[in-house]
Write a structure and sequence with these properties.
The protein is an alpha/beta fold and about 400 residues long. It has helices at about 1-30, 60-70, 90-100, 115-120, 145-155, 170-195, 210-215, 225-235, 255-290, 290-300, 305-320, 330-345, 355-360, 365-375, 380-385, and strands spanning about 50-55, 80-85, 100-105, 130-135, 140, 160-165, 205-210, 240-250. About 55% of the residues lie in helices and about 10% in strands. Helix 1 (about 1-30) packs across helix 6 (about 170-195) and helix 11 packs antiparallel against helix 12. The longest helix is centred in the C-terminal third of the chain and has 33 residues, at about 255-290.
Length: about 400
């Protein structure tokens, strides 16, 4: 009996300490995100040449709208818009070319965004452009995107992440997804950048030195998380990733549970992939090279996804009233409070002005169910490209509140 009690206590306290670390990490960077970020102090001496890359996987309608919006972007320097056409219909390609958009056609047995970008850059001559910016097929650049990215490169950065934000919040699920995005921005981008660390990349609304991006994409493979792979490669090079919190790229948010589950399946599969791939190297980078940034990326892969974390802590809190072993209910209650504080502190004030916030919170149990479902579909992410379907959406005025 004593051994069983000892084993139960050991397991539950070990889990509790691990989950407590999760909460402490999120709360620390949530608070750090409220530090004032000094604006870039740089005189713009030249307007660098941009190529805007838009990978499009079977998105025949949305790509017309977004590529035209990119083509009409106001920038003092030279730029071209490239659509990387993977599975687009011939008539879509003809229409794109007729509007002045450059089209690079690619085809793979198994499509991935990383392979599409790598193949496209191989077809663009070196030294044609200074900066390569990557947009998702549903993204719309804010009016000052290229101008501010150009300024960041003038300050010496080779990698820049803009503030990706929702262009639609017309359903409770879309609003919940928009909240999740902003919390990620605050903790993993603004919070880190505010204390002198690199921002995390988010997959789009990001810009790289043209030749540097070509180097980063070498051997990118069939990973389902090309942005995370780039993250690890950049911090291994000890390059700083700049975060432009006031420079927006508008992104379509998930409107239904099916697409939410599909997207989270891909994200969790990427997290597991990189934890396995880089866990040991993270320790080596820290001990031998003092590369804390690389180690921090491994730590991020070690964290429980937040929606799952809410559910797990809730289960342990309730079960602690019944189980004769393990931490007390107060221990789990404190963690739930810390997690709630981290999330509410990270959420921008403008979201509290909307009635949809409370409607969206009622979607959390369903979102938790979707996350659990995603855990059982991870093998699917390895065998097929789980792209997120998109619709033509107008930019919501709510993002500018």
């Amino acid at each position: 009996m004593f051994l069983i009690e000892l084993l139960g206590n050991s397991i539950l306290y070990s889990i509790g300490i691990y989950l407590l670390f999760n909460c402490c990490y999120l709360l620390f960077f949530s608070l750090a995100g409220h530090r004032k970020i000094k604006p870039l102090q740089v005189m713009v001496k030249k307007s660098r040449r941009f190529c805007i890359l838009i990978p499009a996987y079977r998105e025949n309608e949305v790509v017309i709208e977004t590529s035209q919006a990119a083509l009409n972007h106001n920038y003092a320097g030279e730029f071209d818009v490239f659509v990387i056409a993977d599975g687009l219909q011939p008539e879509t390609i003809v229409k794109l070319k007729s509007t002045g958009v450059k089209v690079i056609e690619v085809a793979f047995e198994k499509s991935t965004k990383g392979k599409a970008l790598s193949a496209a850059l191989d077809q663009i001559p070196d030294k044609t452009y200074d900066i390569a910016a990557i947009l998702d097929v549903d993204n719309i650049m804010g009016s000052d995107f290229m101008q501010e990215v150009n300024k960041a490169f003038g300050a010496g950065y080779r990698v820049v992440q803009a503030h990706r934000t929702a262009k639609n919040m017309d359903s409770s699920f879309a609003f919940l997804d928009a909240c999740n995005e902003e919390i990620n921005n605050h903790i993993y981008r603004k919070g880190h950048y505010a204390i002198g660390m690199s921002s995390a990349l988010i997959g789009s609304g990001m810009a790289f030195g043209f030749t540097y991006l070509k180097e980063l994409l070498i051997g990118i493979g069939e990973t389902v998380g090309e942005d995370k792979e780039l993250d690890f490669r950049i911090v291994k090079d000890q390059e700083k990733i700049c975060y432009l919190d006031k420079v927006f790229v508008y992104d379509e948010k998930i409107e239904n549970a099916k697409v939410f589950t599909q997207q989270r399946t891909r994200w969790i599969a990427a997290q597991v992939e990189f934890l396995k791939k880089y866990a040991a190297e993270g320790v080596i980078q820290l001990i031998r090279h003092g590369n804390f940034e690389f180690f921090n990326k491994v730590v991020q892969a070690f964290l429980v996804p937040r929606v799952l974390l809410i559910g797990i802590l809730g289960v342990f809190f309730l079960s602690s009233f019944i189980l004769p072993v393990g931490p007390s209910p107060l221990f789990w209650a404190v963690q739930l409070f810390m997690l709630s504080a981290a999330l509410f502190i990270a959420l921008p004030a403008r979201f509290y002005k909307s009635k949809r916030l409370w409607q969206a919170m009622f979607q959390l149990p369903y979102a938790l169910f979707c996350m659990v479902k995603a855990l059982f579909q991870l093998k699917k992410a390895k065998t097929s490209f789980l792209s997120t379907p998109h619709k033509v959406k107008a930019v919501s005025t709510e993002v500018n509140i």
